Amino acid sequence: MALFEVFQTTFFLTLLSLRTYQSEVLAERVPLTPVSLKVSTNSARQSLHLQWTVQNLPYHQELKMVFQIQISRIETSNVIWVGNYSTTVKWNQVLHWSWESELPLECATHFVRIKSVVDDARFPEPNFWSNWSSWEEVSGKETSTERLKKPCKVTTPLSVQDSLGQDILFVFPKDKLVEEGANVTICYISRNIQNNVSCYWEGKQIYGEQLDPHVSVFHLSSVPFIRKTGADMYCEVSQGNVSTSIKGIVLFVSKVLEEPKDFSCETRDFKTLHCTWDPGVDTALGWSKQPSQSYTLFESFSGEKKLCTHQNWCNWQITQDSQETYNFTLIAENYLRKRSVNILFNLTHQVYPMNPFSVNFENVNATNAIMTWKVYSVKNNFTYLCQIEVYCEGKMKQQYNVSIKMNGEYFLSDLEPFTEYMARVRCAGASHFWKWSQWSGQNFTTLEAAPSEAPDVWRNVNSEPGSHIVTLFWKPLSKLHANGKILFYNVVVENLDKPSKSELHSVPAPAKSTKLTLDRHSYEIWVTANNSVGASPASIIVISADPENQEVEEERIADTEGRFSLSWKPQPGDVVGYVVDWCDHPQYTLCDLQWKNVGPNATSTVISTDAFRPGVRYNFRIYGLSTKRIACLLEKKTGYSQELAPSDNPHMLVDKLTSHSFTLSWKYYSTESQPGFIQGYHVYLKSKARQCHPRFERAVLTDGSECCKYKIDNPEEKALIVDNLKPKSVYEIFVTPFTSAGEGPNATFTKVTTPDEHSSMLIYILLPMSFCVLLIMIGCYLKSQWIKETCYPDIPDPYKSSILSLIKFKEKPHLTIMNVSDCIPDAIEVVSKPEGTKIQFRKSLTETELTKPNYLYLLPTEKNHSGPVPFICFENLTYNQATSDSGSCGHVPVPMKPPPSQLGLMISPENVKKALGKNYMNSLGEISAGGTNLNYVSQLASPMSGDKDSLPTNPVEPSNCSEYKRQMAVPLCLASPPLTENSSLSSITLLNPGEHYR
Amino acid sequence: MKVLAAGVVPLLLVLHWRHGAGSPLPITPVNATCAIRHPCHNNLMNQIRSQLAQLNGSANALFILYYTAQGEPFPNNLDKLCGPNVTDFPPFHANGTEKARLVELYRIVVYLGTALGNITRDQKILNPSALSLHSKLNTTADILRGLLSNVLCRLCSKYHVAHVDVTYGPDTSGKDVFQKKKLGCQLLGKYKQIIGMLAQAF
Q1: Does B138 contact A at CB distance below 8 Å?
Q2: Signal sequence: where (chain B) (predicted)?
Q3: pLDDT (tens digit, 9 = 90+) per residue, A533-563?
Q4: What radius of gyration, in Å, describes the C-alpha atoms of chain A?
Q5: Could you give the dihedral angle defined by the CA atoms of residues A348, A353, A357 and A360, in that order, rounded to the nearest 10 degrees?
Q6: Which of B126, B127, B183 to mutate to test the interface with A (most CBs of A within 10 A)?
Q7: In whole angstroms, how large is the CA radius of gyration of chain B?
Q8: The complex's ipTM?
């Protein structure tokens, strides 16, 4: 009750007090007017800063008031902004308020005034505004002189005078910093309104609006970021075409500050928090106008703040062990903007563990091992979740998760023997996953085990008389089945036909085959692969005593892009499987036998390896394996992985050449060793004839020339008769084989010329004739003596001469034929001549020889020969061809006068010449005068002394001068009698002209 | 005292390169003797010629490098923004005596040295990544410094000139960025022009 009374009393006292205050204020009715208004400017921010006080405010009282502010530009009547500012005013308080202008303050004069009103709930209506304060002027474009004259009411940090001096042009704002996308107003102030001012923004002219005669403004909306060193704008004053002044500004446009992204904090050791974020774009600008944005970390629970020195991370020291929850605010800030992001987290949820260490393997055997590792202890009872991965040959084989406190251990099983593994582990907080640690790993190798699978074995059997040469092949076991390093292969051979001791052949690795010589019995062969631990299961193969069936017909298979699809008829009876074998390199002696095992139910398979090459013929043999492991050849296939065109052309033979046909053959051309199945041959024939022969068709060669082509479809038909040819014509022919891939290479054509049609007939005639002539010649040679005697004896027998018939025919009774017995043998005496006369004689003789025949008189051997002296007159016809032709000599019986002196003739060249000439002339004269018909003169004997020095003084006169028409032969004994030394000289001299004759 | 007197000239030389030096300073006191710390080389004029030729050879490249680094509108408005119309640039008369020419050269080199120092300072702030420009500016300033030393040696040793009134390049420290860029460009344009003339005159 007492309490109630106390409360009531207090209430009434308070009410009384309030009423007293209200009555004081309102009773006075004094307006609360703003006074002492001062205006200052911030040129960089383009802001007006107002400060004032309120007059008549009661002492120690607070009052809510509203201030209305008016701002005019250029002149007071041009109000550009009106606004209210509400605040609680204390007694004697200086109030502050700012206003930012979009127009640089330097561009125009601004005016500010203010009034106020009480807006307090304690003082109900009616309230009224105070009077306006007087206008406060903020000058902009004042020149230096004007400003010096008039005291400045407003202080500006950078005066126009200081910065620009007496220039005639000003551009504002200077070095303004704005954010990308902002709207910017720029102005210029021209001292002289007559000037022509042009302005350019980044090199492009811009146009503004005139604020007053001296001021123009430009509104740049949404300015882009151009470069860190700012974007330039300049204006130039020109009078006529002459630029008188240039002024400009640099506008620094900043990129917009971005909010930090991916902000997070984590700890590895519960001592330090590492906070990271993506800062986004750097907003730094040149000229130190704006540095890179700063980052501050603030933790609200502890109230601590840290200025980060890096742009994308910061470390925070954990000082209180008891604090588990953190509330971080990351504040990004530059001159224009501030951004922040916040995260709240529990420390144990943000653990990024240190990497595990001491990773080891214990009790490693062929198939399992124990892996151990450790983690750093960061906090009591902190549980880690660890992940283990086991890799083999780069592939992950096993993955496990395990929870641990400090020491980790895990049993790795199902490992492969003799295999290198890599096991690694990483850990994360188990209670709340935040982030895995980095991996820590180690390699280990399991131990060897016996090979787990029998080697794949195949054989090749060559039967020889009385034995089989068996070559065993096996494939190396895969790493999976080898379980270690294969050291050797054991081959056990057991005779099935007669009991005997098995033979063991040990073949060291890495051999993949061995050769056995077996007799004609059946053998069972066991092959095992062995490593250091043991042997593999055996692979069994049986060699039959019977030779392999080679009578299987070979079948061609088509190529299908490097793969061979083989199919076969199923083997009658029980088979345990099929084997297809082939050689990867059939062209080599070591052909690299390959085989493929196929299941018993399969009747086809596809063989495909990288070893198959185009143009190589592969032969496949398909065996059926009986239950007794005996292989039986079922089928043979052959084919090409890809057929190619023939690599060479056949060597062509041309025979049976006639005038109308010939035969071409290329029988030695092998069709088996070609890079494709030979399907036939193309025979190309070129001839001058435009028309192709029957069976030939017209074709165009690669060089564009035309020819005739004949196609042979049978590859074994290796001959062609080319007929219907023209005799004595040239044909060019070329044979090339073709496969499905095309024909053989281009080669030169072989020319064949058909013979003349009649040449064979001529041969038939000429050969016998030649033979006959030959026979006659042989006969003549054998009977030459008889023929000579018969036809042309040395001394013709006038009685046998045919002249007789002529004589008889002409019936000249006064001409008689002289008997040989009547003749006295002739003799020649050669007279020696002096040397000095030789040349002269030769000369005279030469002079005469062209016109006169030379005569050699054979002198008679008998000195006392009288009367008609027969002599022989030799006429040299070579020197008297014309005369000879006229027959003047040979056909005229010459009643020869004997030469005056033979000796004299020989001694003196003149004499000789004279004598010769005379003699000749005489002869000619006699011939011409004689006019007789006698044309044959026999020899005459002329009496001649045997002593050469005793020449006859009386020249002999031939009584009957006979003259041979063509008698050229002079008996050796007569023409060249044995001479003395002197006489031989004369003889040579005399006969010298005769050299011309030969 | 001798040591002090000998150290005056180098000390004042160092003062010449003070960045932003805006008002003329006397090189030596009026009553100071013309003394230099090191003896001058015999082939001073050859060295001066060689240095002028070296500067002339690199002046155009420096000019291009500068206006390219400023970005638009400088490269495309060279005549308007980079014209060599520097009003207070020391004069040079090529037909004067060697002594007069050397004195004028001295003034020009002092002027250019301070101007180049200001440009280098400004560009390091405005274009911190334009390293090749900075390097070229520094190299040019080094050669100018050597040239000034040689000219001084020559004046002192041959003509006993102990005092030369000099003016410095404009101080840009209080100017806005555009003005700095433009002034730098104009000065380098003027430098390119005058250095060619000087190389020919010597």
Answers
A1: no
A2: 1-22
A3: 999 999 999 998 887 766 788 888 876 777 8
A4: 72
A5: 80
A6: B126
A7: 17
A8: 0.71
